[in-house]
Amino acid sequence: MYCKILSKVIKEAKQNNYNSQILKSNNKIKTTWDIVKVESGKKSVNEDVQSLNIEGKSTNNPQAIASAFNEYFLSLAEKTYSNNNNNNNNNNNNNPIYYLSRAFNNSFPNINLKFSTRKEIENIIKSLKPKNSHGYDEISTKLLKASSVYISSPLNHLCNKSLSSGTFPQRLKYAVMKPLFKKGERKCISNYRPISILTSFSKVFEKVMYNRLLEHLNSNNILVKEQFGFRKDLTTEKATYELTNDILSALNDRLIVGGIFCDLAKAFDCVNHDILLSKLNFYGITGKANEWIKSYLKNRYQRVEINNKNSSHNAFSNWGIIKHGVPQGSILGPLLFLLYINDLSKTINNKSKPILYADDTSIIFKNSKFENFKNDINIVFEALNRWFEANLLSLNFDKTHYISFTTKNNHQIDLDISYANKLICKVLDTKFLGIHVDSTLSWKIHIEQIIPKLNAACYAMRSIKPFMSQETLKMVYHAYFHSIMNYGLIFWGNSSHSVIIFKIQKNIIRIITGCRSRDSCREL
């Protein structure tokens, strides 16, 4: 009897604890995932770098690992530049400003670099996510938000000093980098990407400039309509709609349709500061605003932090200077990158339909005649690569794909597309902004990819059900299952292959409500 009472008490305590954790959490999705992993028996993968191959030898020395990562991350742009054919002289063929002036034949007014106010600073701090993580200064955004009422006035004074002098504070230019594993062999350094942790105060200064840049760009209609990345009300689903609608319309008109899906090598890391500043000047971001951004980009430093399981202190590399790129993890970085590639679509849109989401560049071609179709692709692909070369960016040919879109697979248009004797891959499907797009838009491959994820969610929900209330289970459903199923649903939901997805959804609804397997879900 006492065992039953104890089990009941433990179950209720767990349920109350989990309900409380989720309700109080500022990041309910992350908290839900943590609970799901605990109760479903999933062990969290140790994300720390335990060992690394350095110059052909394996080492588990945290200090050596940190130094190797910092050297690798700092050298990414130089290695990419070495593959670029452009010698950056002033000939029209490889001068980025030549392309820019051809893309926009109008001039732009100068930016209004108005001062900030205390209210603006308060709103900026309020908008920051309350995180405990911190940069090298050990001041978190959570601490910054807690002290907002006391520091917003002096911080406003400092921001205005920064704007009026055209300088970004040097002490805010230091970033701590942490390697994040992508996939493949864990000991291979190229299988990691850097996560940048900036100072909290840096985000406030950046946001002040960001607000002024965005107002200038919007009021003068500077950002091209083909760019969907990092823009208000423009989502990945809107970009996907633009892509699929263009393909389907062309197929309905019985046109030949094909698409090139580009993969840029380390695009954000390879932004050339001098080219960027010249482009900003062209767009009217001149004077102190241009000086401020130059100060923001130049003389930045980073070091890599590696967790040391054998010590209470983590290992750090030495500080290294960042010579290229826009700051990773920053507020301004993405917007500056959009301006860097803003003229790209205008270079190629006379014979194609470009769709951009930040550095993801996709181009749709359509024509009624094969020869014209082939010529358009060759002309655009050469122009595209010449633009990349001029702007010191490089196409990753191994990951750049060409798809011939048809109503049936046996109607594929066979083309060899190349530049500088390098061919791109011909495929039947590719990943576009997280959705698998196939040559007939059947969505079969995309659905096959998400089925295992949804089945795993079902198993996890079944495992945690005894310890959660129905309301909490609904939260878990929306954070876990529904977020996977709902992405891109408007595109693949009507596919004949989607029936199995909705069967899995019915199973999980029955798990939440406690219904039997044969009960109808219509009224649930």
From TrEMBL:
One of its GO terms (biological process) is DNA biosynthetic process. Residues 161-437 form the Reverse transcriptase domain. This is Reverse transcriptase domain-containing protein. It comes from Cryptotermes secundus. CDD domains: RT_nLTR_like. Pfam families: RVT_1 (PF00078).
